[in-house]
Amino acid sequence: MSLVLGTALLVLFVLTERKVKHPMINLSLFRNRPFLIGNLSGGLSFVAMFANTMILPFYLQGVLNYKPTQVGMILMVFPVVMAIVAPISGHASDKFGPMVLTTSGLVITGLGLFYFSTLSATASFYQILPGSMLMGLGAGMFQSPNNSSVMSSVPPQKLGIAGGINSLVRNLGMVTGIAWSVALFEAMGGVTMPKPGQINAFMSAYHAVMLVGMAIALVAAVISFNRKSYAKAK
Question: How far apart are CA 134 and CA 149, in angstroms?
């Protein structure tokens, strides 16, 4: 019911925005192919990433019985790798353009999610790290070039609106990723803090969520690969 109501209100919002003289969101920006594809692939990237961000802590604590300190150390790998890679990919994008970097980043994100789908209920600390590193590498390669290309695709007087839409899409992707991953996880019989007899059900549900997340990341990669008409790299 909530999904139907939300969809109806979204359609009503779009119809209203197209008619009013001073719309909240300038929908004409979405006629710009680089802007549209950059936001679409960016939103999907966050949908895919936050599926794992949401469920991984429960896997670490509920299945592997890690302490909060250990969980924090593993979760820290993703942002650290991303922080290292993002400035490098942003600089490379200025020289070579965003196409290869954004598409490759999404593919690597998909590989990271696939890696998580292969983990067992007895995985070691060092077996988990490659997945987090792949996710951080993929996100770092994608985010900076994508954001730069989105912002450079609009005229200067519309940068504020473009930045606001870009942030909205990012937040929407995060919320959507959390919502669908939890819904699918529970539908597959997963329990966030499983008892010994529920471990197999947890792992089956977790693997299913990771595989769907991988598929979303690869769809985003296909969309990103088809972007055209970007400003040429200087």
Answer: 23
Range of the domain at 124: 32-225
Do 44 and 217 form a contact (C-beta atoms < 8 A)?
yes
Give, in degrees to the nearest 5, the angle at Cα 169 between 166 and 174. 130
pLDDT in tens, the chain (234 residues): 666 777 787 778 777 767 777 777 777 777 788 888 999 999 999 999 999 999 999 999 999 999 998 899 999 999 999 999 999 998 898 888 888 999 999 999 999 999 999 999 999 888 999 999 999 999 999 999 998 888 888 888 888 888 888 888 899 899 999 999 999 999 988 888 888 889 999 999 999 999 999 999 999 999 999 876 454 444
- Tell me how far apart the alpha carbons of residues 58 and 100 are, in angstroms, rounded to a whole number: 34
Are residue 57 and residue 92 in the same domain, yes or no? Answer: yes
- CATH at 189: 1.20.1250.20
Full 3-state SS string of 176-207: HHHHHHHHHHHHCCCCCCCCHHHHHHHHHHHH
Judge if 8 and 73 occupy the same domain. Answer: no
Residues 89 and 138: beta-carbon distance below 8 Å: no
